[in-house]
Amino acid sequence: MGPVRAKSSDSKGKKSSSGKKSFDKKPSGKAAKTSKPYAKPTTKVTAEAKKAEAKKTEPVGSRAQQQKKQRSDRQQQSSGGDLKIEARKLWEQLRRGDLDADVRRTHMAAMMELIGGRIKEITLKHDMSRVVQTCIKHGSTEQRAVISGELAGAEIELAKSMYGRHILLRLLKHCPAARARIIAALSGHVRRLVRHKDAAAVVDECYSVYANAAQRWALAAEFYGGECAVMGAHVTSVDAILAQSPQRLAGVVAALKASAAPLLEKGTVQHAVVHRVLLDLVRLSDGADRRAAIEALHTLAVEMVHTRDGAHCAMLCLLHGSPKDRKALVRSFRPFVRKMALDEHAHAVLIGALDCVDDTVLVAKTLLADAAALADDLLPDTHGRRVLLYALAGRSPHYVGADALAVLRAGDSVRAATSKKDPATRRRELAAAAGPPLVAWAERHAAAAVFEPLPSQAVAETLVRAPCDKRRAWDAVLALVSHDIAPGHVLLHPVANRVVATCILAGHAPVRAAAADAAPPYEGNPPFATDVLAALAESGQLLPAAAAGAFPVRALLEVPATAGRARELLAPHLAVLEAKAAGNATVAAIVALLK
Question: Which of 183, 209, 235, 302 lies 20 to 30 angstroms, CA to CA, from 518?
Fold first, then answer.
């Protein structure tokens, strides 16, 4: 059989003599152009035509204007689009702060006529929520009642809405008549709502700001179990229930554990109603249940201390906790010492830590060292000064609030079982740690601080109780005593004279029953009374000070160390003092002491 010949093909080319496939050359010129069936006829497009075509398709205005037009078109096409557009136009005028009252009333009437009957369906949108909020803020009592009435029954839905919750908050603030209804609507749903990021804010506002005792219990009752939730309105706390039925304690504790578990697991402990639940859990439980709750609060307690119940709960955790628990809690407080010390409730937690933690070295290095470094900020503050002054004065009622003092005293029996260190030893060690930095502060600021109500207390307590050398700090105060007697003198100033008198009477004045827990004065103090009398005698200001009614002069006549010498110096001038005694009770007391 002979060799097979390759087939020829016009479209694919043909074999060359060498056996390689060869292709014909493509046609060129006009023939090539006219031979393509898909070729388009050439048309000449001018530049002007291109610009005209581009203008037909180019959007009018800037990008922001285009987006605004698109939104407007979408609103018009949506349900109630015309209403929303008109409402927003009115709102732009109504929300102005400089609007005349009569004009505002006119706009409010027009707005209510426009949205009346349709408030509920528009409140869950961002822009219309702002409109309704403004209506609640600027509306009359009747107009607010209309809005509140249309929203009745939708409280849960609004509370869970990102925009609707603001309407409920506005109603709570501006419409007192609606508060009871809103609180009643939320009651029974609080366990679920406190875990919702939007609804939790509404629940917290209701509980913390607007609810009375019975309403607060109604909001919290479901955490304590079904039996507690159905109790009558006369019940305002779990203690009232347990006083009537002590056998319910186990069931209440079990319900509290079940309610608190998901909150502790997710760290949802920022709200006041949760603080109440956790406080009762720590307070009513015992043994393993209490230890588990305290352990779960090691890092969460610091998020609760801004409320009364939360601070009380943290103090109980410190009191009932083991040394390991206390160490973890104290370390969690350290980054927030300044904020806690200045807070109305949280400062008591720091005092509680100083009162029961045996490891005073840890407390001194963390809490006290940081607080002393902030002395310039804390000592002029109503709450901040108490933390540092507790380290010197102990449980003095002048510096420890009544609520905190009651918690500390109620826990003395527990502290005796959970703390090994003697309270007097703990107090001395704390004073030794706080004394030097406070004395250094007094040296720098005493000359001005004695004239300020709160810093002057810090100066007096530091001079009287700090267990260290404070001669230079006392000299800074003593230098003011020698100045010529005039209005505003340290012995006549209503604030500064108390500092000098406190130092003179230190260790001599009888201890009041209320101050029985306060720390005693330091035994190594300078001779305050003798120094003051010597300064006045050398400067010739003793008689002018007595004639002006300076209370420290009376104190000099009462203290055994200076009474004799002060009478000896003032007795020759008794007639002068008697002439001044008619209109001044202090001068009259000085005259009586001299006689």
Answer: 302
CB burial string 405-415: b at 16+ within 10 A, e below? bebbeebeeeb
Alpha-carbon distance values, 420 to 356, 361, 472, 519, 521 (Å):
10, 15, 37, 20, 25
Q: What is the pTM of this model?
A: 0.83
Q: Which of 337, 334, 273, 251 is nearest to 299 (CA)?
A: 334
Structure tokens of 189? 């749903």
What contacts 382, CB < 8 A, 6 or more positions away? 454
Contact 220, 194 (CB under 8 A): no
In sequence order, which residues have a C-beta less than 8 Å from that of residue 412 and are 6 or more positions away? none
Closest Cα to residue 292, out of 252, 325, 268, 329?
Answer: 325
Please, what's the largest Cα pairwise distance for the chain? 163
Instruction: Provide the residue-wise pLDDT of the chain in tens; the chain has 595 residues.
Output: 444 444 444 444 444 444 444 444 445 544 444 444 445 455 555 666 655 665 555 555 678 777 777 766 665 555 556 788 888 899 999 999 888 999 999 999 999 999 988 898 888 877 789 999 999 999 999 999 999 999 999 999 999 999 999 999 999 999 999 999 999 999 999 999 999 999 999 999 999 999 999 999 999 999 999 888 877 667 889 999 999 999 999 999 999 999 999 999 999 999 999 999 999 999 999 989 999 999 999 999 999 999 999 999 999 999 999 999 999 999 999 999 999 999 999 999 999 999 999 999 999 999 999 999 999 999 999 999 999 999 999 999 999 999 999 999 999 999 999 888 999 999 999 999 999 999 999 999 999 999 999 999 999 999 999 999 999 999 999 999 999 999 999 999 999 999 999 999 987 766 554 455 678 888 889 999 999 999 999 999 999 999 999 999 999 999 999 999 999 999 999 999 999 888 899 999 999 999 8
* CB contact at 8 A, 498 and 505: no
